[in-house]
């Protein structure tokens, strides 16, 4: 599970944007390695920095596909 600062303290986030913890960064990179065999042509996230950063970390582990720009924030998903 990718954790944020507020997850760490059992706080509900909603639209509140909190940064990823070190554990969250490790989990995102691990997820990226597990998905590294999949070729992505596009990646979408909500418009919070925590989801954008998670997506970037996942794609950094995937050498087969790094779309430019790597992540597009999907404002309608928020």
What this model shows, in words?
The protein is mainly alpha-helical and 78 residues long. Helix content is 37%, strand content 5%. The chain has a two-stranded parallel sheet with strand order 1-2. Helix 2 crosses helix 3. The chain starts with a helix and ends in a 5-residue tail after the last strand.
Q: Distance between termini? A: 20 Å
Radius of gyration: 13 Å
What is the count of helical runs? 3
Beta-strand proportion? 5-15%
User: Pairing-aware structural class of the strands and helices?
Assistant: mainly alpha
Instruction: Outline the biggest β-sheet.
Output: 2 strands, parallel
Secondary structure: number of strands: 2
Brief write-up:
This protein is mainly alpha-helical. The protein is 37% helix and 5% strand.
Topology:
Layout: H1 5-8, H2 22-34, E1 44-45, H3 49-60, E2 72-73
Parallel strand pairs: 1-2
Helix pairs in contact: 2-3
Features:
mainly alpha, 37% helix
């Amino acid at each position: 599970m990718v954790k944020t600062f507020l997850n760490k303290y059992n706080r509900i986030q909603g639209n509140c944007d909190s940064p990823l913890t070190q554990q969250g960064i490790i989990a995102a990179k691990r997820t990226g390695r597990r998905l590294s065999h999949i070729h992505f042509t596009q990646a979408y996230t909500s418009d919070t920095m925590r989801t954008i950063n998670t997506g970037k970390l996942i794609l950094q582990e995937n050498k087969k596909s790094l779309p430019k720009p790597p992540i597009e924030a999907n404002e309608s998903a928020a």
